[in-house]
Design brief:
This protein is α+β, with helices and mostly antiparallel strands. The protein has eleven helices and ten strands. The longest helix has about 35 residues. The chain starts with a helix and ends in a 6-residue tail after the last helix.
Length: about 350
């Protein structure tokens, strides 16, 4: 609807909404056969996809919203369809942005994922610094004096010439996202580890298992870091990590513009990603204090949390340790990754 609306002049032209204009231009000008296939498929399948998405996300979150806001399921589905045509809002964002609460007034104030993804792609060159390859990333950081978690080993299907280091380990795909494929090896005795599902493995057995995995997808092995003592009570066991967003200003200098602290909860002891059931809290730009936490609204039953759901330790108001140092590190790093605007 947004791409078509721009084409029909429903958003006031390029000057009134340049972001949507850029998105629509990119949408109607596919680069290759794959993008043409996506465009044609989207034009054919959107009615079915819209109804299936509405049904799925209403099934997941509709009952919780009905109890909390006294809004019937039929009304929620009706609003999702209406907001789709009026503002391009898809079903998941109806719940993530809490548009079931006065959504018609607020829907137009959000920048949608399809808009930001399009613009980030235009702001990012096809070739540049290695932010998408974890092995090259660690080497790049080492060469430029940027502090980061070191890579101990890189596996690509061949038996390495040395044994695993005798320490807690963290393993993840060399090119991956969302925490998928990550695992931890906790050292429980000299050269013995607690592997996935708590099974005890020797260092050689664990390495053999990882080499076999790496034949399908290359892996990197890093030291497993432990949470800062102040953050340990607000995690279910995985290392809490902070996502810091920097952007070049009008003078071409990087500035920190936002940050979120991610925390694991439930049975997950490996990663804190929202895709893996984690939660996140906004970090106050000046003080480093945390806001209430959420799982990005992907499951409305959880809602907004002032305390960690497992440990009941307060999240809201907690100060992130070394916040000012973290901001300085992010700005310094961005100066070396200068091919990226964001």
């Amino acid at each position: 609807p947004v791409a078509l609306g721009v084409l029909l002049g429903l958003y006031g032209g390029d000057t009134a909404d340049p972001l949507r204009s850029v998105f629509a231009h990119r949408y109607w000008h596919p680069d290759d056969l794959g993008e043409w296939s996506e465009l044609v498929g989207g034009l054919m399948l959107w009615p079915l996809a819209l109804l299936v998405a509405c049904a799925w996300f209403t099934w997941r979150s509709g009952a919780a919203i009905r109890l909390r806001h006294r809004k019937r399921l039929a009304a929620q589905i009706g609003e999702q369809i209406k907001l789709y045509f009026s503002a391009g809002v898809l079903a998941p964002w109806y719940y993530i942005f809490s548009l079931h609460d006065d959504g018609e007034r607020r829907a137009g104030s959000f920048i949608e994922r399809f808009e930001t993804k399009t613009c980030f792609r235009l702001l990012k060159p096809l070739k540049g610094t290695p932010l998408n390859d974890k092995t090259r990333f660690a080497l790049f950081c080492a060469e430029h004096g940027i502090r980061c978690v070191p890579t101990l080993m890189h596996l690509e299907g061949a038996e390495p010439a040395r044994r695993l280091p005798d320490q807690d380990l963290f393993v993840k795909p060399a090119a991956g996202r969302g925490g998928r494929g990550a695992e931890r090896g906790d050292r429980i005795a000299p050269f013995r580890f607690s592997g996935p599902e708590g099974k005890e493995l020797s260092g050689d057995d664990l390495l053999g298992r990882l080499v076999e995995r790496s034949r399908r997808r290359s892996l990197i092995i890093q030291p497993r870091l432990n949470p800062h003592p102040d953050l340990l009570p607000i995690t279910s066991g995985a290392l809490p990590t902070m996502r810091v967003l920097t952007c070049l200003n009008a003078d071409g200098q990087p500035e920190v513009v936002a940050a979120v602290l991610r925390m694991s909860c439930g049975a997950n002891r490996t990663v804190d990603n929202a895709h893996a059931g984690g939660i996140g809290a906004l970090v106050d730009f000046i003080s480093g204090a945390l806001s209430k936490a959420s799982n990005l609204g992907s499951d409305a039953r959880l809602g907004w949390l002032s305390k960690h759901p497992d440990t009941l330790t307060p999240i809201e108001g907690k100060i992130v340790p070394y916040w000012h140092e973290a901001k300085a590190l992010a700005v310094t790093a961005h100066r070396h990754f200068n091919d990226r605007v964001v």
